[in-house]
Design a protein that fits this description.
The complex is a heterodimer of chains A (193) and B (131). Chain A is α/β, with parallel strands linked by helices and 193 residues long. Helices cover 25% and strands 26% of the residues of chain A. In chain A, 39% of the residues are buried. Chain B has helices spanning 14-29, 63-69, 75-84, 93-99, 115-122; strands at 4-9, 33-38, 88-92, 111-113, 127-130. Chain B has a single domain (4-130), classed as Hypothetical Protein Ychn, Chain: A. Chains A and B meet through helix 1 and helix 2 of A and helix 1 of B. Chain A: Pfam families: Rhodanese (PF00581), TusA (PF01206).
């Protein structure tokens, strides 16, 4: 299954430092929260892209490989994403979520981008990216306990507020979410890496 | 934490040029503020004519082919990219005087300065490199 990206950057055949230089330029044009796929054949690019993401604060999602071609996925961070500004009053922590995983009547709603979900998510969780939530409300059962999760608790906070506005009452925002999730995950197994 | 990278470039071969400009452009890509101080043979790397055709070290001529097949960008291309990304280039006044070189002999967009110009920038740099 292909991984969804908003932009594709072709760096195939380019040597260091070109993949990084081109990534920087492409990232400047990308909207916050969007995902870019960087295609490269430079074997050093896997380590370089991760280091670059770390030093610039953008989110490295993962890499797949197919023959000589590496596909790196990055998500452009929002400048205020790092600061935790939780407003939705009903939250649970990761430990609590792990305890209710097996319970009936529980839905785990993952509001991250599809590419983030593809690389790693909680088994059985439902993927609806934050930006598409309002158009997919009917996929959710109001009678169930809905645990909303994202990477750090910010997008899920916004999602929880959207759901509360729509009349949902059994909503819990999971804080922090996937960035520190220690429970079971389902990982993307594609590629021959 | 400072985000400055201070580099001294004092050798004038093709290998030296790649070391300097690869590190500089990578750092600039990661939003670092980069200044390179070119001194002695390092001035070759920004000399209008010389930087177009830098020598490989003696006995390493066979690597010319490798640069081509690895699709490594040419030095003038890397220099242009570095300048475009805001890498600051300082040519050493003292060396220029010794070698009888003028600012016009160098690529566009450089500054000329002395050791103190570099030290002033480097004093709170987080990374300092010498090539």
């Amino acid at each position: 299954m292909a991984i969804a990206a908003n932009e594709v950057l072709d760096c195939k055949g380019l040597a260091c430092p070109m993949p990084i230089v081109k990534t920087k330029k492409a990232m400047e044009k990308l909207e916050s929260g969007k995902v870019i796929e960087i295609q490269a054949t430079d074997k050093g690019s896997t380590a370089d892209i991760q280091s670059w993401a770390k030093s610039t604060g953008h989110q490295y999602l993962g890499t797949t490989s197919e023959g000589e071609v590496l596909r790196h996925y990055l998500r452009k961070a929002n400048p205020d994403e790092v600061k935790e500004d939780t407003k939705f009053p009903h939250t649970v922590d990761n430990v609590m979520l792990e305890k209710v995983l097996e319970q009936e009547n529980t839905v785990i709603l993952d509001v991250r981008e599809p590419a983030e979900y593809m690389f790693s998510h909680i088994p059985g969780s439902l993927s609806i990216p934050l930006g598409e939530l309002e158009n997919n409300i009917e996929k959710l059962d109001r009678e169930k306990d809905i645990y909303v999760v994202c990477r750090t608790g910010n997008r899920s906070d916004r999602a929880s507020q959207i759901l509360a506005d729509k009349g949902f009452t059994k909503i819990k925002n999971v804080v922090p979410g996937m960035s520190e999730w220690m429970g079971p995950v389902e990982k993307f197994q594609g590629g021959d890496k | 934490m400072s985000n400055k990278v201070a580099i001294i470039s004092s050798n004038g071969g093709l290998f030296d040029a790649y070391k300097v400009f690869n590190i500089a452009t990578a750092a600039a890509s990661a939003d670092q503020e980069v200044t390179i101080f070119f001194t002695f043979e390092g001035l070759n790397l920004i000399h209008k004519q010389a930087h177009q055709n830098l020598p490989l070290p003696a006995g390493k001529e066979q690597f010319a082919e490798g640069f081509k097949s690895a699709n490594v960008p040419a030095i003038p291309e890397l220099v242009e990219m570095a300048v475009e990304m805001g890498v600051k280039i300082i040519a050493c006044q003292m060396t220029m005087d010794v070698m009888n070189l003028k600012k016009e002999d160098f690529i566009e967009g450089i500054d000329v300065g002395g050791a103190m110009t570099f030290i002033e920038f480097a004093k709170d740099a987080n990374i300092t490199l010498t090539f």
